[in-house]
């Protein structure tokens, strides 16, 4: 794509795409704006027209990851033919798999996460709110069908978020396989579902 013929949004998308490749390969800390600019076929001065700093590019990349995760979880909530309990389990497992594939299988992404989230914890809070809203939809559906008996859906969604934190934090993925994490998560979800049935 020639930057001369591209819109600002297309150029920003190209910058983020090239930055992701470099962050994954070399890590956020070892990547420079000059290198990203070179990968995009532009000058560093031109790059600064679209992003004020490497940190801003990192935020854009992090927001892309978050958006992808939220789309996956939203798809679980909208997927037809699932009972609420099945939907809840798949919801937890899909987030675990997403985090595993993007952090454990691409360890330099953790470098990006550490650098960005220290300064932009609001991104985590917004993502938590989206996840809790989607979980609330599952719980409301369970109440409607009679599968669950949840008195306070918002409180229950927040509790589920807290109880499944281990399956979203890469710190807990060390020295354990994805299959082992999945089996443990299924056991945790099974216990939660028993409680949700009242």
Largest sheet: none
Fold-level CATH name of the largest domain: Tetracycline Repressor, domain 2
Query: What is the radius of gyration computed over CA atoms, rounded to a whole number of angstroms?
Result: 20 Å
Count of DSSP strands: 0
| CATH structural class of the largest domain | Mainly Alpha
- Residues in helices, as a percent range: over 70%
Order of helices and strands: HHHHHHHHH
Structural class label: mainly alpha
Low-confidence stretches: none
**The CATH H-level homologous superfamily of the largest domain:** Tetracycline Repressor, domain 2
User: What fraction of residues sit in β-strands?
Assistant: under 5%
Mean pLDDT: 93
Number of helices: 9
How far apart lie the N and C ends? 57 Å
Number of domains: 2
CATH architecture of the largest domain: Orthogonal Bundle
Q: What characteristic shape results from the CA principal axes? A: elongated
